[in-house]
Design goal:
Number of strands: 15
Strand order of the largest sheet: 1-10-13-7-5-6
Number of helices: 6
Structural class: alpha/beta
Helix content: 10-25%
Largest sheet: 6 strands, mixed
Shape: globular
Distance between the termini: 32 Å
């Protein structure tokens, strides 16, 4: 696959449909769409690496890129870059956050119960702690392009933010996004260990100095200096959906963006991706599929 650098405008459009999620529909899994073991394994590969399988019609484009040689923490052209500057792998393997290394998470302004419930649910699903819950922090977002995160006690992690989804896009009002900043559809890239495919942290986002992924719920009319023109409130399944994007489930599939935001197929894919039996670097043809 190509590792040529994409123009930012092209990249933004390609990610638009992946991380910007709309009003949703039927959130329950449908019996006729329930995946077999083989389909779950295929969905893990295509959502995690954006290639082939069940996700062909929703490809987010470039999966692997190369880091900027002047700044090895920058990954501007893809979902993932290796920390040693290696080029795109010929046969990529499972890419995920490492079990045992907790992801710092911060609530912006308040601990929204949907975020709390989502993290409780995900940790219960995989069977181990994943998140270092840092609590509520005050972040000035009056200038979304110039946000000071120096007061946080880590230099990477997730910022969970209510009322900062992008707003109107493609004719509908967005309930949730995952991005490099509030009110943004620019994706959050990741720097990955070249030795084991473990996500080390989100990459520095263009001109920003800290490595954070924003999980945004709800559009609020009048926000972002009046640029947001619609209201949308995310239900619990959309919160789970967006959090799963942040964890490495990028492309949509049945009951993960198609025919609903979250259902049994999505649950099995996330559980399989983060199973202790499938550490980062596990070949996709050797996945142990969880029920």
């Amino acid at each position: 696959m190509s590792i040529n650098t994409l123009k930012i405008s092209t990249l933004a459009l390609s990610i638009f449909a992946v991380t910007g999620c709309g009003t949703g529909s039927d959130s329950g899994d449908k019996e006729s769409k329930s995946y077999t073991v083989e389909q779950v394994a295929s969905a893990v590969k295509c959502t995690n690496q954006a290639e082939g399988g069940l996700c062909e019609k929703n490809s987010s484009g470039q999966t692997w890129g190369v880091t900027d040689y002047l700044n090895p923490d920058m990954c501007n052209s893809a979902l993932y870059c290796f920390d040693d500057g290696s080029e795109a792998p010929q046969n990529p393997s499972l890419t995920r956050f490492v079990e045992g290394r907790l992801i710092p998470v911060y609530y912006r302004d308040k601990a929204d119960p949907r975020f709390v419930a989502t993290m409780d649910y995900i940790e219960g699903l995989v069977g181990y702690q994943m998140f270092d819950r840092k609590g509520v922090v005050n972040i000035d977002i009056s200038d979304p392009n110039n946000i000071d995160l120096s007061g946080l006690d880590s230099d990477w992690g997730f910022i969970l933010s209510q009322g900062t989804s992008i707003g109107l896009m493609s004719g509908f009002c967005s309930q949730g996004t995952v991005s490099s900043a509030p009110f943004s559809y620019n994706m959050s890239s990741h720097v990955v260990s070249a030795t084991d495919y473990g996500i080390k942290y989100p990459a520095i986002q263009w001109s920003r100095d800290h490595k954070f992924t924003w999980v945004n719920l709800d559009s609020v009319a009048g926000a972002n200096n009046g640029l947001i023109t619609c209201n949308a409130t995310a239900p619990q399944d959309v919160a789970t959906h967006e959090f799963s994007h942040a964890l490495g489930m990028y492309n949509h599939f049945s009951v993960f963006g198609f025919d609903g935001a979250w259902g049994k197929n999505a649950e099995r894919v996330l559980k399989t991706m983060y199973s202790s039996q499938n550490p980062q670097g596990q070949p996709f043809d050797s996945l142990v599929v969880e029920n």
